[in-house]
Amino acid sequence: MPLKKSEPATEYEEINRWDEGVGWIAHPDETMLRASHALDTAAGVWAVDPVDAPGVDDLFAEFGDVAGVVVLLNRHYRDADEIARRHDVPVYVPAFFDRVPEMEADLRRFDATLPGTDYRMLKVADAFGWEEAALYDEAAGTLVVAESVGNAPYFTTPGERIGVHPMMRLTPPSALKGLRPERVLVGHGRGAMDDATRALDDALGGARRQTPKLYAENLRMILRR
User: What confidence score (pLDDT) does residue 212 get?
Assistant: First the structure.
């Protein structure tokens, strides 16, 4: 299984469907399991950290017109520009992002909330070149985390449904503590769609304790390649 595929996707796997959105993985056979999400809001559909694939426009159309594309991690620009241009919408990035690559699509910054929605922007990381935000709609119960927690194999140890990123295990993101989501959508993997608050609490609370086990398992995974 390759870590990450560089060629264009030929299909996608649907994940995490609920009444107000759906997710997809454009390369379901890669280790990174790069996940993307479509959020249905009063303003329209928002594509989050999207990796393009044939048919994703039909996925958006199930919920309505695309209002914008949002990037939540400064390494997740992925296919944001292409999808935004195809739907003639802007790409939105958190206001605190320092450097943003040039795009053909209209680029806009946002703070506090995603425009026209109830998704509050949380600053998760802003140090050592790692700039990351999360989106949280408390009333709807939906939390979207780009990178700090995930469900790809290298994020989790046995028993963890989602886990803290290996590089953040010793300093779990405080911005995510105390949240009570019904579902946690992640940028790598399938997230947690039931009993999500417990899954998030377990991930954050056990991050440091499980670090040696995670590192050992990741080393074994690397050596098997």
Answer: 76
